[in-house]
Amino acid sequence: MAMPMYLGIDAGGTKTDCAVSNGAELLGQTTGASCKLAGVGPESARQRLQGTILNACKVAKISPRELQRVCIGMSGASSEEAAAWARQAIQEVASGEIYVVGDHVIAHRAAFGTSSGVLVVSGTGSIVFGRNQRGESARAGGRGPVASDEGSGFWIGKEAVAAALRSYDAGSSNGLLSTIAGHWKVPREEVVRGAYTCSVPKLAELAASISAAADAGDKAAREVAQWAGKELAALAGAVITRLWPQGGVVRVALAGGVLQGSALVRGAFCDAIRERHPAASVSFTCVRPVLGALEIAAHLDVHGAAQ
To answer: Pairing mode, if any, of strands 15-21 and 5-11?
Structure first.
C-alpha cells in the first residue's frame, strides 16, 4: 500500500513556499513568487500558486494527484471568497482534501507544535497570534495596511517615506530620502512628487534598505526600526495580557522577513516586551511557516480539524 502524501503551502506576501512529505520525512520543497491575491490579482496568483505546487511535487518525484491532503496558510483565509479561490486553484492541479487557514495559524504550528505560546509575525504585513495552556486563543493586528499591520515591512516603508518628507518640508535632510530614492532607483524629486501613489508592495520592499541604513548608523532609519520593534511588542503585549492575565512564563517566537532580517527591530522588540512582561521567553529560532502547514496537513482527523 502506497504511503500517503501531504502538501504544505505558505502563501506569503513576498514568496510562496511549498513542501511535500509522506508524514515521516520531507520529500521536496520549493519557493516561488508571491501568490497574494491583493498583490498580484487572481489570475497571476493562480498561475504562481499552481506553478510552485507542481515544482514542489516534481522535486519530491511524485504526481500532484497522489496528494492525500493539502494545507495552505494565507492572509485573508477568513474570507470565504479568498478561501474558495485557493481551493479551486489547488484542485485544478492536485487531488486530496484542502484545508485553508490563516498564515498566522501555520506559523504558530511551526513554532510551537500543539503547545502554547505567542507568535509574532512581521513580513509585508504583521500579526500576533497566541494560544494558552487552556486552548484559548487571541490575536492582535493583521487587519490590513490601512488601519493595522504595525511594525510590518509596509509600515516601516510608510513611516520612512513620511519621515523623509517631513524632513524635506522642513528644509533639511535626514538621509532617508536618499535611501528611498536609491532603492527605487529614481531621483529624490520623484519620491517627493509621487510618494502618495506608492503601493503596499512598493512600500514594503523598502524595509530591507531601511534596515541596512539603520545598521550603517543612519539615525532616522534607526528610529523607524526601533519604533517598529516597539509597535510589535505592543501587539504582543496585548495578546499576552488577554491570555495570561495572571502572568507567568510565556514563550514568544518571531517570524517574518522583518524580524528575522533586522537585529535592531528584534532588539527593540525584546527590550519593550520584557519591560511589559518580564517573564516572556523570546526565541530567535527561525520559524518556517510552510513546515507548520505541512504538519497540519499530515495530522488532520477525519473531520478536517487540526489535532
So the answer is: antiparallel
* Strand, coil or helix: 21: strand
Q: Which residues contact 15 (CB under 8 A, 6 or more apart)?
A: 31, 32, 33, 34
Residue 10, helix vs strand vs coil: strand
Between CA 91 and CA 290 the distance in angstroms is 19
Which cell goes with 256? Answer: 517574518
Cα dist from 291 to 8, 192, 258, whole Å: 7, 42, 19
Instruction: Name the pairing type of β-strands 97-102 and 67-74.
Output: parallel
Amino acid occupying residue 145? P
The tens digit of pLDDT for each residue in 29-68 reads 999 998 887 778 888 989 999 999 999 999 999 999 999 9
Residue 28 near residue 57, CB atoms below 8 Å? yes
Burial of 195: CB neighbours in 10 Å, binned 0-12, 13-18, 19+: middle
Longest alpha-carbon distance in the chain: 74
CA distance 179 to 197: 18
Angle of helix 219-243 relative to helix 176-184, nearest 10 degrees? 90
Write out pLDDT tens, residues 64-123.
Answer: 999 999 999 988 788 888 899 999 999 999 988 999 999 899 999 999 999 999 999 998
CB 221 within 8 Å of CB 262 = no
Stated pTM of the model: 0.85
Cell match 497571476: residue?
A: 44
Half-sphere exposure for 52 (CA within 13 Å, toward CB) = 27
